[in-house]
Amino acid sequence: MCIYRGIENRVAIMDSIASPYELYSPDCINSQLKQLALLTDVDFDRIRYEEEMIIEFDEQKTSVIKEYVSLIRQVELIGLNPDSFGRKEDDYYQSRKKLLRDVLDSLYQNPLIAEQKIMEYKEPEPTRGIFLEGYRRFGGILLNILDSLRKTKMYSLVKQLGDMRNVFLQFAEMKSAA
């Protein structure tokens, strides 16, 4: 994993030397996004990757990553709120929780897969009125996540370049990390 080492002069330092993953591999990106999502009380303008060489993303490239990490944090917070899924007695409560976990896991890998998971989710309208509010709330949450996701620059870049690895390689001005 890329190991977060701290902030120096508003630069987040990621140590890639000790990582068992290839620089900018899907596992490396996944690990990095998870670590950055945990940084709620610090701010930074750039990201530096220290490996055999030092790669530092400028503020513009870093802002793309920060915007995406912010979306990930929002989805994590939604998942922590039990009210997001309706009433626990609802037959679809657990499937909603599972979907949101799957969407979150997909966000760490590829926003296009997260989008697909949301788009493919189908749930019939409840037959009992007591579950209607939860059904509507969760549907609204999914639409908001989808809308927010599609507005991120990371989503646009992944759509253009194919996957997050290619985005990170382009940011690093590399053709390959191997």
Characterise this structure:
The chain is an alpha+beta fold. It has 2 domains: about 5-60 and about 160-170, no CATH class; about 70-155. About 55% of the residues lie in helices and about 10% in strands. It contains 7 helices and 4 strands, in the order E-E-H-E-E-H-H-H-H-H-H. It has helices spanning about 25-35, 60-80, 95-110, 110-120, 130-150, 155-160, 165-170; strands spanning about 5-10, 10-15, 45-50, 55. The protein has a 4-stranded mixed beta sheet. Helix 1 links the parallel strand 2 (about 10-15) and strand 3 (about 45-50). It starts with a strand and ends in a 7-residue tail after the last helix.
Short overview:
The protein is of the alpha+beta class. Helix content is 55%, strand content 11%.
Tertiary shape: elongated
> Main sheet: which strands, in order across?
1-2-3-4
What is the number of strand segments?
4
Please give the count of helices: 7
Largest sheet: 4 strands, mixed
Beta content: 5-15%
Helix and strand pattern: EEHEEHHHHHH
Backbone structural class: alpha+beta
Estimate percent helicity. 55-70%
Low-confidence stretches: none
Q: First CA to last CA: what distance?
A: 16 Å
Indicate how many domains the architecture comprises: 2
